[in-house]
Amino acid sequence: MKCRQLLRILPAAAAMLVALAAFWSCNESLPAYHFPDHVISAQVTVAEQLSNRVGPPGYQKSHFVLQVQNTFDEPFYDSVDIKGSVRVWWKRKPQRYITLYISEQNLSTPSLITNGKLLMVPNQKITFDFYWDMKSSDSIYLPYEMDYTYATLLRVCDYNVVCSDPEQFVVESSLVLYDKLGYITASPVVYTFMGTECRNCGGGGPYCPPGRGC
Asked: Which of 72, 39, 75, 63 is nearest to 184 (CA)?
C-alpha cells in the first residue's frame, strides 16, 4: 500500500520541480530593460547677431539654433517632455545674462510630434530656434552698455549708424527631449556682437529715422 502511494506522489513532485526550474530559467533570461546611453546629442549650431534690417539700432536681436541628433544606431520612438533652457551671458560683464526657456513652441518642425511621441531615425536631426532682444534678465538693453568711444571715427558701419567695440557672449544650453532619457547638455559656444547706435540723432537712412538716437 505504501509503495502505491509513493508512486502516485513521485510524478506530481517531479512535475512541480520541472515547473519551478522553468520559472527560474525564464526569469534569468529576461533581465530588466535599461534605455541605452548616448541616444541623442545636442549642440548649438547657430549663434549670431541679426542684421540692421532685422534688428536696427535700439532694437537689436540675436538668433540661436539648438540642434538635437539621434546618435543611436536604431530608430528611437518614445514620449517627449520638452523642457530646458538656453543661458546667454556677456563675457566682459558676467552679471549681465538672460535665460531663455525651451518648449515645444521652439521646435522648428512641431508636426514631428504625434500623440505626444516622437520618432527619430538614426542620424536624424531636429532644431529649436530662439531669438533674443538683447535685454538682460533685469531688463537692461545691453547695447547701451557697450563702448562707442572710437565709433565716430572708426566704426561707421552703415548709413548714419555707428558700431561699438566687439563683445563676446557665451551660449550654454541643456534640455530634455525624451522624458525617459533625462537632460542632455550642449557644449558652450561663444559668438561676437557689436552694438549699434544712430549718429547725429538719426537724420535719415533705412535704420535711423530722424530723432532716433538723441
From this structure: 39
Cβ contacts of 196 within 8 Å, gap of 6 or more: 52, 56, 57, 60, 143, 157, 158, 161, 162, 163, 164, 207
What fold characterizes domain 40-138+172-191? Immunoglobulin-like (2.60.40)
Helix (H, G, I), strand (E, B), or coil: what is residue 54? coil
pTM here? Answer: 0.80
User: At a CB cut-off of 8 Å and minimum separation 6, what does 124 contact?
Assistant: 69, 70
Report helix, strand or coil for 63: strand
Each residue of 9-40: pLDDT tens digit?
434 444 454 454 454 444 455 555 555 667 89
Residues in the chain: 214
Q: How far apart are CA 109 and CA 128, in angstroms?
A: 9
Start-to-end CA distance of the chain, whole Å, equals 117
Only one residue has cell 535704420, namely 207
Q: How far apart are CA 190 and CA 164, in angstroms?
A: 18
Q: Could you tell me the residue ranges of all domains in the chain? A: 40-138+172-191
Task: Specify whether the CB–CB gap between 142 and 125 falls below 8 A.
Answer: no
* 3-class secondary-structure state, position 189: strand
pLDDT over 50 (residue 54): yes
DSSP E strand stretches across 9-49: 40-49
